[in-house]
Design a protein that fits this description.
Number of strands: 17
Strand order of the largest sheet: 1-2-11-10-9-8-7-6-3-4-5
Radius of gyration: 23 Å
Distance between the termini: 60 Å
Number of helices: 10
CATH superfamily of the largest domain: Aldolase class I
Order of helices and strands: EEHEEEHEHEHEHEHEHHEHEEEEHEE
Shape: globular
Helix content: 25-40%
CATH topology of the largest domain: TIM Barrel
Strand content: 15-25%
Largest sheet: 11 strands, mixed
Oligomer: single chain
Number of domains: 2
């Protein structure tokens, strides 16, 4: 198979899995169903606030029920979800509830994929996931025998089945073995993720001789080259598609596209979208009792939001007192984190 793509967005052979197709334009909401995980991968990038804790997030927004998760998924204007953790199957009832609710709410064509080590992927669990509506399952090999889970999923269900592993220098031969094992077990694809070098795993990686790339912040030095090398090998030796996903693509392009999709359905009347997937608005901070009728809306204890126009903000400040700002933030529920804040002089 021919190798396609480019290092800034990813390289691959054959057709990418449907979950990746939807991730590219930011059309997948990320459902973090739990931080609980019984594996201890030295390269795990999950934050200390999540890993090991039974927490529930959608696109980094905390949720406390399946119903709240559905609201966030709808707010993101997505065409599918990716279920991740921790190990999602450490909380199987929650996963099944999410899958069923999502299919019932958004329809049978709304795509759902799940990422798991497979530790708890029993035959009964795999069939239950498929019957609930799971479309795609990605196994992350953490122990010998992972190919048995792939074989079970491929034989017992009609889900698309594959594997997903990190890649860094020294792991090229291991990646080739995984690709061969997935192929022989009846799997459909393998994804390689550029290994991240972030605060939760930095010490563990450094102890093993890895260093952060100077050219590519927050990634392991040489991981990009290792990923491309494996995909080149797969183009000559593998029958199943292999995809390398750079961390920079996920952090910039994919996330930005997801935020831009959210803005399409969630922007307030006074907010202006930017090319970076953020929102800009004007804000008058004043102890006035009521917002100026028709041109501002209460958006905080003593804050009133309006169009991000300096002339308008000057007039409002002169009329009502206080301080005026032009603010840029992310389209989260609370519009945080704030990217920039400029006071009108």
């Amino acid at each position: 198979m021919k190798m396609l793509g480019n290092p800034s967005k990813g390289v691959f052979t054959g057709h990418m899995a449907r979950g990746c197709d939807l991730c590219f334009p930011g059309a997948k909401a990320v459902v973090f169903v739990t931080g609980v995980c019984d594996d201890s991968c030295f390269y795990c990038p999950v934050s200390r606030e999540k890993l090991g804790y039974d927490v529930f997030y959608v696109n980094e927004e905390p949720v406390y029920s399946v119903e709240e998760a559905l609201v966030e998924i709808e707010r993101s204007n997505s065409l599918g979800i990716s279920i991740t953790g921790g190990d999602p199957l450490a909380r199987p009832d929650r996963v099944l509830a999410v899958v069923r609710a999502v299919k019932e709410s958004f329809g049978p064509w709304f795509h759902i994929h799940l990422y798991t080590s497979g530790r708890y992927a029993t035959p009964d669990m795999l069939v239950a996931l498929w019957r609930a509506g799971l479309d795609e399952i990605r196994f992350h090999p953490t122990e010998p025998g992972f190919e048995d889970r792939i074989r079970m999923a491929a034989n017992l269900t009609r889900m698309t089945v594959g594997a997903e592993i990190p890649i860094a220098p020294g792991l090229e031969e291991y990646a080739a073995k995984v690709i061969r094992a997935v192929e022989e077990a009846g799997g459909s694809f393998v994804n390689l993720n550029e290994m991240e070098f972030v605060e939760p795993n930095a010490r563990s990686l450094a102890m093993r001789g890895y260093r952060e790339s100077k050219a590519r912040p927050f990634t392991v030095d040489g991981a990009l080259e290792a990923g491309i090398k494996v995909v080149e090998w797969a183009s000559r030796n593998a029958r199943i598609p292999v995809h390398f996903c750079p961390a920079s693509f996920k952090d910039s392009i994919q996330t930005r596209n997801r935020l831009a999709r959210t803005i399409l359905v969630d922007a307030k009347w006074y907010e202006a979208p930017t090319r970076d997937g953020t929102l800009v608005w004007g804000e008058l901070r004043s102890p006035i009792k009521e917002p100026p009728p028709g041109i501002a809306e209460k958006c905080g204890k003593e804050s009133y939001c309006t169009y991000p126009e300096e002339r308008l903000l000057h007039k409002l400040r002169d009329l009502y007192g206080g301080d005026a700002f032009i603010v840029e933030g992310h389209p989260t529920r609370q519009r945080k984190p704030i990217v920039s804040e400029t006071q009108i002089q």
